[in-house]
């Protein structure tokens, strides 16, 4: 949800043609970091920020600068791929998610691997980058095995086909100019500055921390009590952008960003028939807020939106606002 993979080239082409400077690029809601990764080809420094634990650990894994031992991690990956699930005891992950979000035997392997990574970290057998790489590799591995339609708000209530857990290490980046944060975006912008800020907040009521609660749970590994059919923990990291406070929160963000340019992604799902997909900020409100802080151009592109099948979008478009901020 919210993935900009198919739009990244379009976004970056507009940014390159409409802006000047290659110093610092701020991706204040980095998500999957696909836009930030593309920005690394041009900018000397890229600031990544996301409030989710699972996203933050992936940034540490891909873009961290701490050296790591590839031979050690390859050996561990091979060890994890030779696990016999029949000899693994039931664990927190398998008891809660086995037979629901993941096939039962695979869920035992996932829980065992996650606990083993934690044990090795506590025993100082892994440095923080190696720890992040293993956790990120685990997320990418199990993402392909999830019994869902792309998020963890529900699982498919059918027998789960058994597939092997093929643990693969991620390929890390050589970019050395990443600065990584896990903070409330509106607080962070008061302490950073750059040439341009790319802004792609959540616009509807779907909270990312609730949609991807299994990854958040797996990364934190606090083993909380879970509730409801979807087996979610108590709410945390809830975004104001998914509430009635969205408009004022966005206004505060763009007014306090210390940059020359703002690039804002927006899609027109506020016409959606689904209440949860309905945007909390309208196109007109976004335009008005941006026009108040700078000279704004609007670009648009047809785009297929993430859809679980309950919502009908006609002529769905992705908008990119490019604002040159007024001098203070």
From TrEMBL:
Q: Which organism is it from?
A: Maribacter hydrothermalis
| InterPro entries registered for this protein in UniProt | DNA_methylase_N6_adenine_CS (IPR002052), MeTrfase_D12 (IPR012327), SAM-dependent_MTases_sf (IPR029063)
Among the GO biological process terms of this entry, one is: methylation
Q: What is this protein called?
A: site-specific DNA-methyltransferase (adenine-specific)
SUPFAM superfamilies given in the database record: S-adenosyl-L-methionine-dependent methyltransferases
The protein's Enzyme Commission number: 2.1.1.72
GO-annotated molecular function: nucleic acid binding; site-specific DNA-methyltransferase (adenine-specific) activity
Show the Gene3D superfamilies listed in the entry: Vaccinia Virus protein VP39
Tell me the keywords, alphabetical order.
Answer: Methyltransferase, S-adenosyl-L-methionine, Transferase
Question: Does this UniProt record's set of keywords contain Acyltransferase?
Answer: no
Q: Which catalysed reactions does the entry list for this protein? A: a 2'-deoxyadenosine in DNA + S-adenosyl-L-methionine = an N(6)-methyl-2'-deoxyadenosine in DNA + S-adenosyl-L-homocysteine + H(+)
